[in-house]
Amino acid sequence: MNSIAIVEGVIALLLVLLAFLAVSSKKLITAIIYLSILSMLTVSSFALMKAPDVAITEAVIGSGLVTAVFLFTLFAMKKEGEKE
């Protein structure tokens, strides 16, 4: 068995595990962290599939921008709840 195939299998298992953890997480901040790690593993998966343009796009938008939007929204919701 090829070593790249083993790495792809491990990444696939981690993707499924992190997706389950993100959905079943009780705290929103941990779900956001799990989704961010999931997105970074997706980047490495795209890089292994020899799709560097898709990997860079996923890294910038999926890992960076979406995680930042989730965090800003979470902190805005907490501030809004404190005012009332």
Structural category: mainly alpha
User: Runs with pLDDT <50, length 5+?
Assistant: none
Question: How large is the share of residues in beta strands?
Answer: under 5%
Number of helices: 3
Shape: elongated
User: How does the major sheet shape up?
Assistant: none
Helical residue percent? over 70%
SSE topology string: HHH
Rg, rounded, reads 16 Å
Q: Kindly give the count of domains.
A: 1
Account of the protein in words:
The model has no long low-confidence stretch (mean pLDDT 91). The chain has one domain. It has helices at 3-24, 28-48, 52-83. The termini are far apart. Helix 1 runs antiparallel to helix 2. The protein has three helices and no strands. It has 84 residues and is mainly alpha-helical. The longest helix is centred in the last third of the chain and has 32 residues, at 52-83.
